[in-house]
TrEMBL record:
This is DNA-binding transcriptional regulator, AcrR family. Keywords: DNA-binding, Transcription, Transcription regulation. InterPro entries: Homeodomain-like_sf, HTH-type_TetR-like_transc_reg, HTH_TetR, Tet_transcr_reg_TetR-rel_C_sf. Residues 24-43 bind DNA.
Length: 187
């Protein structure tokens, strides 16, 4: 593992323990065993590092959604929905403790939103919508399926579970199959 990967892993650890707002680049660098100068050799700032944590350290929700959108028929619809739900649950459970501290300050939230172009939290939602549109095109979902509402219901449930998991300091419940089955029954 190289210095960049070690810094991202340390950032994930520190951000999970202290939240984004309180995780300083100095503490992250020290936790990784490097100087702050080495951190800045790889990352512009803490937001750049946070985005790397989201893409490198958390469950690969985005990559899986891109794969499913490109070839949705590879597996049964239910299996795909269970997979999306499991990854959504894991992604939000892992990212919630890190991301929630951004809401502690309007200035911090505004700065982060400006940096990520405002799209940050919408990216997984759009990925699920795109995947569901691919399922509609295959005919495995009805043509009139409201993919935006289905995506919001699925990821909203995953997000709610992450909130409860974080609040109650417990392991996330594996309700992926129940979420998929409930959605399919309604569709």
């Amino acid at each position: 593992m190289g210095s960049r990967e070690e810094i991202v892993a340390a950032a994930a650890k520190v951000m999970r323990e202290q939240g984004y707002a309180h995780a300083t680049t100095k503490v992250i660098a020290r936790t990784a065993g490097y100087s702050e100068a080495m951190l800045y050799k790889h990352f512009r700032d803490k937001t750049d590092l946070f985005l790397s944590v989201l893409s490198d350290e958390l469950p690969a929700l985005g990559a899986t959604l891109a794969e499913l959108t490109a070839d949705p028929g590879r597996a049964p619809l239910r299996d795909n929905l269970v997979r999306v739900a499991r990854l959504g649950l894991a992604f939000y459970a892992d990212s919630f403790p890190i991301a929630i501290s951004m809401f502690s300050s309007r200035e911090l939230l505004r700065s982060h939103r400006d940096r990520v172009g405002g799209a940050g939290p919408r990216i997984p939602l759009k990925g699920v919508e795109d995947y569901l549109r691919a399922e509609v095109a295959l005919g495995r979902l009805k043509a009139d399926t409201d993919v935006e509402a289905v995506a919001a219901l699925l990821l909203g449930a995953c997000f709610q579970q992450a909130f409860l998991t974080t609040f109650e300091e417990r392991e996330p419940a594996d309700i992926a199959e129940r979420l998929a089955d409930t959605l399919l029954a309604a569709l």
